[in-house]
Amino acid sequence: MRRFAKWLSILLVAAAILAGGGFWYIFMSPYGYHPAEPAIIDERIAEQDVFVYGTLRHDGLRWIIMGTPVATREATLKGYRKQDLDIHPQPDGEVHGEVLTVGPAALRALDRYERLGVRYTRESVKLEDGTTAWVYKRLPE
């Protein structure tokens, strides 16, 4: 029984190290992401709004990606419907999500997480309350 517990502990530690290393490689290292063209981020704009409707609604994940907690506010994007990991135009549709207000460094981190230019594109949209925000939309496969 002690031998089993020892090997299980070793296996769990190894899995955690591999998972952490994989996460670092994909989302933080200079090696795991090469966009087709670099995103344009205006460093003169101190804060920009980003509308999120999927995994980025989770506080813990955003904190890991951006390195800091970010306050959010509820928001609705009219004229779209959510389908799996994407949104599509639909005249009577609406997507419920949250708005993050981020600086240039956090926007770069979000672009990397969404694999901007590889899996997603970042577009400007007008939200139900009249504010303008960035939103990530899947690129065709």
Q: Can you give me a brief rundown of this structure?
A:
The chain is of the alpha+beta class and 141 residues long.
What's the Cα radius of gyration?
18 Å
Distance between the termini: 49 Å
Strand proportion, as a percent range, falls in 25-35%
Query: Can you give the helix content as a percent range?
Result: 25-40%
Instruction: Give me the number of helical elements.
Output: 3
Order of helices and strands: HEHEEHEE
Largest sheet: 5 strands, mixed
Which consecutive residue ranges, at least 5 long each, have pLDDT under 50?
none
Query: How does the helix and strand content classify structurally?
Result: alpha+beta
What is the mean pLDDT? Answer: 88
Lateral arrangement of strands in the main beta sheet: 2-3-1-5-4
Molecular shape: elongated
Number-wise, the strands total 5
